[in-house]
Amino acid sequence: WLNPRLNSFLAQRGGRDDMKTFKKEFEHHVSDDPLVRWAWNPGPGRTPAPGTHAQFAKAMSVWINGGAPCPTES
């Protein structure tokens, strides 16, 4: 997360000025996107993501409700 290219990407997207839209879209993505959910049920021979999808969704909600802060370049 401390990748300068990521910070540049976020700056190009306008930062977090439109939190209402960002929150709605991101929470939908985290909760409902099949690819995100796949991480916890990746199929035979693959290691699932740590924790549970519910724990991940909760952590993302905490981040979003905290203003979705982005790391700064050092």
Give a verbal description of the structure.
Helices cover 55% and strands 0% of the residues. It is mainly α. The chain has a domain at 18-41 and 48-67. The two termini are 12 Å apart.
How would you briefly describe this protein structure?
This protein has 74 residues and is mainly alpha-helical.
Q: Main attributes?
A:
mainly alpha
Topology:
Blueprint: H1 4-12, H2 19-32, H3 34-38, H4 53-65
Helix pairs in contact: 2-4
Distance between the termini: 12 Å
Query: What general outline do the C-alpha atoms trace?
Result: elongated
The strand count comes to: 0
In terms of per-residue confidence, which ranges show pLDDT below 50 for 5 or more consecutive residues?
Answer: none
Average pLDDT rating: 79
Query: How much strand?
Result: under 5%
How does the helix and strand content classify structurally? mainly alpha
Main beta-sheet annotation: none
